[in-house]
Fold this sequence. Notes:
The protein has 240 residues and is an alpha+beta fold.
Amino acid sequence: MNKTWYRILPWMALSSGILVILLLGLATILKPSKNIEGAVNRNIALDKLIQIRVGSADINSKAFFDYFDKTLSCSVINSKWLISEKGEIIYAKGMMAQSTPLHSNVYNGGDAQSRGLIAAVECNIDSVQKHIMLVAAAIRCEGEHNDMIGHLVIPLKTNSDSLVGFVGVAYSLDDLKPPFENYYIIIIALVICFLLYWLSLPLWVYFDCRERNNKYILWTIFVLFGNIPAFIAYLIANRK
Length: 240
C-alpha cells in the first residue's frame, strides 16, 4: 500500500499544482467586480424618488415622514434625507445618515472642494440647481463609503410647481458579479487542489524517508512547512 502511494504522490503533487495555477487564474478572471456604477440600481432609486408627491400634508409633519419613508423603502436605497426649501435637514434615516444632525443647514455645509466646484459654475446655473448641488455635496459628506454608494437629489414640488424642499437618497451601486455558485465551486476546487498539492510532498517524504530508517518525522514536518524549498533540500541531503 505504501509503495502504491509512494508512486502516486509525485504525480498528485504535480497535477494538483498545475490545477492550482489554472484555478487561481480562473478565479482572478471571474472575481466578483463589486460596486460598479450601472443603470439598474440608479433607475430603481430614481423611480422611487419620482413617486414622492406633495399634497396638502406639511412636509415637516409625522404623516409626511411616514409616507416619505414608506415610499422610498426598497433594498436598493439605504439612506434618505428630506431637506426644506431653506436647506434645513428635517428628516434623515439610514446607514449613511446616522451622523446627520437634524435641523442643520446644508447650504452652510459641504467640503471646500464641493463649494469650490459650485462657485466655479454658479454663474451658469439657477438658484434651484445651485441648491441641488449643495444638498448633494452635503449628503455625500455624510458617508465614508462613496465608492460603494451612489447619490441622487431631486427638488420636491407641489402640484402647482412650487418648490417646498429637496429629497436625497444614497443607493447601492450595481454589484456585477458572476453567478455565486460557479465562483464558489472554483474557490472550493482551488482549496482542495492546494491542500492536495501541499500535503503530497510531505507524505512522499514520509514514505521515502521511513524506508531509509532516517529521521523521517523531522523531515516530514520540515517539508510540510517548507514545501518546495524544503523538499529540494531533502532530495539533496538524501540522494548522496
